[in-house]
Amino acid sequence: MNRFVYFFAALVACFALMGPAAAAVNINSATVEELQALKGVGPKKAQDIVDYRKKNGPFKKIDDLSKVKGIGPGIIKQIKADVSVDGAPAAKEEQKSGKPADAKPKTEPTKK
User: What confidence tens digit (pLDDT) does each residue in 49-96 have?
Assistant: First the structure.
């Protein structure tokens, strides 16, 4: 009985730790604290993201983070799989479609 309790507690702890890692941080609605959870994003950069968003409106794509002072391609590459602009992480969208998440859908020309 005792082993079962320890096993169950360990299993619950594993799932609890996995939950936050699987959730994408929406850069259009995240708080400073939520943004700081991202690798390479400290308090200053997190505040800069929030300030930029308030001044310029929502980000249309993740790569728009490069418009925020102090955020370059390296940081974007580190966090791209963990962030979204609409709730779904970019990496997961690419896996589903085989196309980059910010790729625009092709449209057929209209027939005349």
Answer: 999 999 999 999 999 999 999 999 999 999 999 999 986 555 444 444
Distance CA 39, CA 25 (A): 12
Q: Rounded to the nearest 10 degrees, how much is the dihedral formed by the CA atoms of 14, 16, 88, 100?
A: -20
Q: Tell me if 104 sits within 8 A of 60, measured CB to CB.
A: no
CB 53 within 8 A of CB 67: no
SS3 letters for 30-65?
CCHHHHHCCCCCCHHHHHHHHHHHHHHCCCCCHHHH
Q: Which residues contact 72 (CB under 8 A, 6 or more apart)?
A: 66
Domains present along the chain, CATH in parentheses: 23-97 (1.10.150.280)
